[in-house]
Amino acid sequence: MTLRPALPPIPRTAKQAAGRRILDAFRAAGAVEVAPDILLPADTLLDLYGEDIRARAYVTTDPVRGEVVLRPDFTVPVVQMHMAGGAEPARYCYLGEVFRKQDQGDTRPEHPRDNEYLQAGFELFSRDPDADAEVFAMFHAILAPLSLDATMGDMDLLLDAVAGLPLSDARRAALSHHIWRPARFERMLERFSRPVPPRSFAVNDAPWTGLRSSGAMQDRIRRLEADRAEPVLPPIWRERLHRLFGVAGPAPAALDELRVLADHIPAIAEAVARLSGRLDAIAGRGIDPATIRFDASHGRRTMEYYDGMTFSFTAPHRPDWPPVASGGRYDALTRVLGQGAAIPAVGGIIRPGLVAELC
Amino acid sequence: MLKLGVPSKGRLMEQTFDWFAHRGVRLARSGSDREYAGRVEGADGVQLVLLSAGEIPRELAAGRIDLGVTGSDLVREKLAGWRSDVVEVAPMGFGHADLVLAVPACWRDCEGLDDLATIARDFRQAHGFRLRIATKYHRLVRAFLSAHEVADYQLVDSQGATEGTVANLTAEAIADITSSGETLRANHLKILPDALIHASQATLFAARAAADRPEARAFLARLCV
Question: Do the beta carbons of residue A72 and residue A98 sit within 8 Å?
Fold first, then answer.
């Protein structure tokens, strides 16, 4: 391992001070400060986040409460808290540590990322169509002195495009489920673009074992056989999806490209109109849309609970850093945690530790 | 003085002794069969330390031994960022075992990872929780499934008798080490052909800090590795 002179670490107090300044800005926007527990019940959280976050979460056991986890993220506990009290419009902010293990694969990086770091966040539960622009513009204003690169994505576009494919419900559902896993998605799309070869499912004499029922297997075999009768997806659709997923550039240019694409993929027309409205609203708040990079696939690399706009702010000279700020829309998550109730929601976090390093 | 850590019992120890004997270095336990101390003949300045194979990765990483023989699976599982701590000197050609993913043999519709991914999604919808895979190799299994973009599963810890978890309804699939596949078959499980997670074998490792020391180089040259 090589030794190289490191800058003195930023004291924790400076990071906290940066966090409090961000929190003040969130409060000025009318947000109520909340403080979710640090030690959270593991089951709901890890079931939602999946094994990738589970791998990074500090899980421990409490003799009474069972499996508990050190808060790996604020959004889920804040949404849980809000939905438990009903689904009324509200705005919340918070400042606190999140904890994530950094398992780096075969070789450890020279400068490992922090295992615990502050997040200052804002969550807006609102039916106002202007909410996306409000949240984006607020983050933009708070971070303006740092000259960060702003990137925006939109999962709506991609999910609508998939929902509009001339495929069976089952095939479209499978594609949207795996939209965050590019190779699996691509393989599936390729399979749907060709006749499905028959499968034999050799009978064996193994006794039935395990919780999955033989009925569930018979159902799946029937579905697979029925799926063979599905018409092949014309290859032009794969090309169109590739073009859509590849749209990236300054937001106004990307929008022009999307408008052209919408002539060929009518299912995205509404989402393109919403994006156009959002960019206008953002311009109305004094931000030049040409300074925002739009990347249609941005949301495929973020948390799976985002299902609309996604955004991140990154430090241009620190390619090794995670985003300084990130967020997005997560309407479906409020339904999952809302036990019947739901409300549109959008939010994001800033990492005060990184802000303090840039100051 | 160079400290060489070797598995302290069983076939792995005997085969390790044979491997070194073949290269002109005689390792032997000193005193009785029950004493965990050893002798080295045919190389100067090398001290034999007999250890559990499972502890050798940690002892190498900590620098308490300079060379060690253990399974390549154990090093990868137990040392996060293992290449930063140890150097793989020589695969030794024995102690072969594969870390595989196995599902119930009665799942006629499961012939590979893509099937497993779909079954996991259906299972999660039907049961309200993620399909459980029992293993003690958490890091290796998770990295493999993440690289192959399998979602909708969860790992459950199993430190022993992992093949029994499916019949006991505490897991739907398992990931474990197998050499002949006998125990898997006895428990009505089948190996997924495209899910070989790691092909392990006994391997001579060096602690990264020790690998370049002259006495280590000299000893390894003596072994012709």
Answer: yes
Give the nearest partner residue to A55 out of B142, B150, B166, using CB atoms: B142
Determine the Cα–Cα distance for residues B138 and B140; give it in Å rounded to an integer.
6
Query: B149 and B65 in one domain?
Result: no
Q: What is the CATH number of the domain that holds B113?
A: 3.40.190.10
Interface test with A, best of B144, B148, B149 (most A CBs within 10 A): B149
Contact assessment for residue B114 and residue B125, using Cβ atoms and an 8 Å cutoff: no
Contacts of A60 in chain B (CB under 8 A): none
Tell me if A207 and B154 make a contact (CB, 8 A cut-off): no
The number of distinct structural domains making up chain B is 2
pLDDT digits (tens, 9 = 90+) for B170-221: 999 999 999 889 999 999 999 999 999 999 999 999 999 999 999 999 999 9
Residues of chain B found within 8 Å of residue A106, distances taken between Cβ atoms: 76, 81-83
Name chain B contacts of A223, Cβ cutoff 8 Å.
none
Task: Please state the pTM of the whole predicted model.
Answer: 0.91
Query: pLDDT tens digits, residue range B55-74?
Result: 999 999 999 999 999 999 99
DSSP letters spanning B167-200: TTTS-SEEEEEESSSHHHHHTTEEEEEEEEEEEE
One domain for residues B128 and B179: yes
